[in-house]
What does this fold into?
Amino acid sequence: MKEYAAVFERTSTGWSAYVPDLPGLGVAAKTLPQTEQLLRDAIDMHIAGMREDGLPIPEPQTQVMRLSISA
It folds into this structure.
């Protein structure tokens, strides 16, 4: 099992998300839970398509860190 970093961003109409290590993969929905489910499904489909096309599946490279700053 691989763990890919996912970025979720609030938008004016809901949420969007993408996986930096899987270029071209992005989703959007009204709620965070909907966006997460769409992203999970999209990752599965994206990787299945890459396998069908004989492409290598990228290894997870991106790391996410939350930094505390005084603002």
